[in-house]
Amino acid sequence: MYVVVATDGRKGVAAHAHIPAGDSLATVRAGEARCSAQQLGAQPPILIGLEDAGLAVISPWPGEPLDRLAKKLDSIFAVLRPDAVLTWGPEGGYGHADHRLVGDVVTQVFQSGAAPASARLYYVGFPPERVANSPRWFGFHVYPTATALLTTTVSFDERDRSAARRALGCHRSQATEDEMNESFSALEHLWQGQVAFQRWRGGPRSSSLF
């Protein structure tokens, strides 16, 4: 399993961490990504290093960073030959602009035919009935995906849950322990033992990504 991180997090300042925006924070965020991947049992993350909150530009031409991201993903997919790719849907989970744009570019790569023909693309999603009464995730509103579109659900056990909590705990520059606990409680409410996905261009109901 590989995790690909598009942006460097250099602008994601949190008051409790006392780390200024810029190279210092980007270095910390890279270390946190490596810690998180290790807790999940993934390979060391692939850090593309585009500027945090810098994907949406109109100069030197609209989409220039997104074009660079697409070329990087082309190369990564060519080497890794993934069976399944997970990314953000159009809503970006909780509306994060970088999340939305990264999901758009991943979809663009699949749409262009550059991804392996056998690879499947999925967007993580949250059922509306759970979103309706969910606590906020890191203080943000979460956007739902229609239940009919969430045709793939993958169950997880206590070992998976513990690994996910440890992975979240790596990101100490972003949240306090109390904030992490609150946010993980929100995720548990949204998941309830199963993570739901929408498959790009649809597909039959399944309990597996492959």
Structure report:
- The strands form two sheets. Strands 3-4-6-5 form a four-stranded mixed beta sheet, covered by helices on one side. Strands 1-2 form a two-stranded parallel sheet.
- The model has no long low-confidence stretch (mean pLDDT 95).
- By secondary structure, it is an alpha/beta fold.
- It starts with a strand and ends in an 11-residue tail after the last strand.
- Helix 1 (23-39) links the parallel strand 1 and strand 2 (46-50).
- 40% of the residues lie in helices and 14% in strands.
- The longest helix has 17 residues, at 23-39.
- The chain has seven helices and six strands.
- 24% of the residues are buried.
- It has one domain (4-199): Rossmann fold, CATH 3.40.50.
- The protein has helices spanning 23-39, 64-80, 92-95, 97-112, 128-131, 158-169, 177-191; strands at 4-7, 46-50, 84-87, 120-125, 152-155, 194-199.
Helix and strand layout, with pairings?
Layout lengths: L3 E4 L15 H17 L6 E5 L13 H17 L3 E4 L4 H4 L1 H16 L7 E6 L2 H4 L20 E4 L2 H12 L7 H15 L2 E6 L11
Parallel strand pairs: 1-2, 3-4
Antiparallel strand pairs: 4-6, 5-6
Helix pairs in contact: 1-6, 2-4
